[in-house]
Structure formats: C-alpha cells, structure tokens
Amino acid sequence: MSMIVRRLSRAATAGLVAAAALTAAAHSAEAADTLGSAAAGQGRYFGTAVAASHLGESDYAATLDREFSSVTPENEMKWDATEPSRGSFTFTSADRIVDHAQSQGMDVRGHTLVWHSQLPSWVSPLGAQDLRTAMNAHINGLMGHYKGEIHSWDVVNEAFQDGGSGTRRSSPFQDKLGDGFIEEAFRTARAADPAAKLCYNDYNTDGVNAKSNAVYDMVKDFKSRGVPIDCVGFQSHFNSNSPVPSDYRHNLQRFADLGVDVQITELDIEGSGSAQAADYTKVVEACLAVSRCTGMTVWGVTDKYSWRSGGTPLLFDGDYNEKPAYGAVLSALGGSGGPGDPGDPGDPGDGASCTATYTRTADWSSGYNGQVTITAGAEPISSWTATVTLPAQQSVSSLWNGTPTWSGNVMTVRPSWNGTLAAGASTSFGFTAAKNGSDAAPTVGTCTAS
Question: Does the structure show a pLDDT above 70 at 2?
Fold first, then answer.
C-alpha cells in the first residue's frame, strides 16, 4: 500500500477510532475494571504482544479489545517479516495488527528495527558499507510506512551480551560497523519519524548488574552528547531461577533519572496461583513508583500462545479465564478486583505440581551434557512441562527422554514416554549442548504438571 493510500485509509477510519476512544474514556470513568482503563487512571498504558494470525480467533480478539490499551506486534515488524528481500518491503501482517489496534483506539509499539536475530539471509553476508546502507534503508522504509502511527519504537534490541563483562553482543552490526551502529540507528530513526519515542530494549537488565550497567553507561553517554534516545525498555521475563530482582524499582528509577522514559516491554512471569500474582504485583508497583515508567506490556494475551507456554506465564489461561495474577495486576493498578484476586477460593495454586532441577553430567572443551530431573509433588501427575533457556551462543545437538520445541534459545520439553509419575517420584531428560564459546549454565524454568 502506498504512503498516500495508507494515509487516506487512516483518515477513513478516524471516526471509528475516535468513537472507540470516547467509548473507552466513558468506560474508564464508570469503573476502572479492565487493565487498560485501570492503567490509564494511573497515567500509563497497559499493552500486550499480538500475533496477526490469532486475530481471527473470537476469544483472542475479544480479550485483547476489552483489556489492553496498547499492542506490540510479536514478530510482524521484525526484519525477516518486513524486508525478506532487499529493498522489497511487505507490511500485510503488520498492517493487520496496526489497523485492528487503531480501530479499537489502541496505541502501537514498534518492535523492532535493528536486531541480531530474525534477519533475512541476505543481511549477514553484506560488507560493512553495504550493511550500513541496508540498515539505514530498513529503518527508513519501516518507519516511513508507519510514520505518525507508532508511539514508541524499539530502535535497537538486545545489543549487549549476557554475563559479567557487560560487553557488546557479537552480531553482523557490531562486528562490521562497531560500537557506533547503535548511535547511527537512533539518529536515522529520529530523522525518519521525529514524533516517535525511540527506545533501546534488552533482557536481563531488570536489576543492577554488569549488563544493565553497560546499558546505563551507553544511555548516559547518549544523553550527554545529544544522541536522540527517549526511552529504555526492560523485557522483564521472570521465573523461579530469574525472579523479580529486589532492586527492580531502583534500577528503573536510575535510568529515569538520566532523563529517559522507562517501559516494561515484554513482561511474563512463569508460575501460577498466589505466588505468580505476588510477583506481578511487585512489577506493577515498581512501575507506578517511578513517574517516568510510562507503561507495561505483557508478552502475549493467553498462556496457550506464549513463547513460554509450559510455564503458564501470562494473565489469562488457555481458555481466556482470568488468573489470580490478573486480579493482582488490576488491584495494583487501582482497578476493581475480579475472581482472580489473590486469596480467591478458586486459586489454582494447589493440586498437581512438580519441580525441575538441573545438573551437568559431563563436560568437555566444546560442549557438555545436561540433565533435568523432574520430581512430582504431593500428588501423582500424568504429564509435565519444563523450560530450559540456553545462553545465546549455545545450541543443543541431541535430547533424550523428552520431546522438545523451540522458541529462540528457549527449549520447552514435554515427556516422550515418562510423563506419569507417582507422588514424590522422579524422572529425567538429558541433552548435549555445544558451548560455542560460552560455558555458562542454562536456566531451568518452572515445572508445570497436570
């Protein structure tokens, strides 16, 4: 769709958008009984990641439209989806999300312009000057198409390495263009859409650590030199092995004190029941305590479509029922509570349960064998699911006694033959991993039983 045609299309739907916004405002005035309306009462947005392929599902669309005030395309704006061939852009799926959001009076976050992952195959082989040209052309092409329609862009995503060094991640951009590629991307983005908020986004930066310190130093440098950065996104993917850090609020505040907004951009917390609800409350309260925390986005509408589905990390279960965490978030935002409030008699925290523990059973210079032991709780279980998050460099070459599925570097494992366990009984699955330069241990997420 040409830019002019797209603008005319937007004008044609302006009445619908305005009507939706007025309806939402009236609804909010009556009672802050949804996530979006409650957050609006606190001067913030409450959003979710959206997949275009699910918008045709009535329960998905109804929950999205009722509860959220902002959307982030989960994959539809990434480089492989929007410019699969050099210079040839396709926006069909992303447009579907933007059109839906605007018809409901929702804002849109853009995700993401420059990222080492989900690149089309033509990008990585480019030489330095060609890559620079391609990067800037991609930013201009994508932002130009949506100019004036995106409230915040993740300009650069996940450019820093995990671990204690706080160094830059190896990527085509870093390796060929050097440290300056981030600044260049932000300057290009500002020229492409001066009205949009420009964000740096990353994970494992939620507390004060070497990685968040490195990002902090970059933002501080950018602000001192007039590099156009407006916000920092904290992905906030949590589980029992990576819980909400005790200094979460302090970390958000120190970034805000640099003169940037902070946004919680990809929130999900593995678990269930009152414990999960309490963790979500911590996150919301931390954002509300920082005046420049402008909004929160959960990474998905329903557990069944989550990239960490085995850890049931979202606010709605697979049948779109409100979980205790939903009631906790709504309450923390000052809204009226629902059946999912902590302490509700229907809290599903009791019942079938399991734990997952990790050990390294063999080790050599280029790889290792890992074993995850699954132990049933006080009741028998008929199946289990566990997630294993590998360091970004590592890869799994084989796995036994389990059936894996992958989302990025997160491996979700379900039983192959060993799902049924008596109370207190154990089983295990194992895998062989290539280190590829990283000897770090993988992270095992919450075990979910049924």
Answer: no
**Which pLDDT tens digit goes with each residue over 102-124?**
999 999 999 999 999 999 999 99
Catalytic position from the list 76, 83, 266, 322: 266
Kindly name the residue from 74, 76, 149, 158 that is annotated as catalytic. 158
Is 149 annotated as catalytic? Answer: no
pLDDT at 412: 83
Q: Is residue 14 over pLDDT 60?
A: no
158 is catalytic: yes
Rg (CA), the chain: 22
Matching residue, tokens 């009631």: 327
Q: Which residues pair with 322 in a beta bridge?
A: 316
User: pLDDT value at position 407?
Assistant: 67
Is the pLDDT at 25 greater than 70? The verdict is no
3-state secondary structure the chain: CCHHHHHHHHHHHHHHHHHHHHHHHHHHHHCCCCHHHHHHHCCCEEEEEECHHHCCCHHHHHHHHHHCCEEEECCCCCHHHHCCECCECCCHHHHHHHHHHHHCCCEEEEEEEEECCCCCCCCCCCCHHHHHHHHHHHHHHHHHHCCCCCCEEEEEECCECCCCCCCECCCHHHHHHCCHHHHHHHHHHHHHCCCCEEEEEECCCCCCCHHHHHHHHHHHHHHHHCCCCCEEEECCEEECCECCCCCHHHHHHHHHCCCCEEEEEEEEECCCHHHHHHHHHHHHHHHHHCCCEEEEEECCCCHHHCCCHHHCCCCECCCCCECHHHHHHHHHCCCCCCCCCCCCCCCCCCCCCEEEEEEEEEEECCEEEEEEEEEECCCCECCEEEEEECCCCCEEEEEECCEEEEECCEEEEECCCCCCECCCCEEEEEEEEECCCCCCCCEECCCEEC
Q: Which of 87, 72, 161, 159 is nearest to 116 (CA)?
A: 159
Residue 171 has pLDDT above 50, yes or no: yes
Least confident of 6-15, 203-212, 229-238: 6-15
Query: Which has more pLDDT, 231 or 446?
Result: 231
Q: How far apart are CA 86 and CA 93, in angstroms?
A: 18
0.85 cut: is pTM over it? Answer: no
- Residue 389 — pLDDT band, cuts 50, 70, 90? confident
Q: How far is CA 263 from CA 80, 292, 419, in A?
A: 25, 8, 40
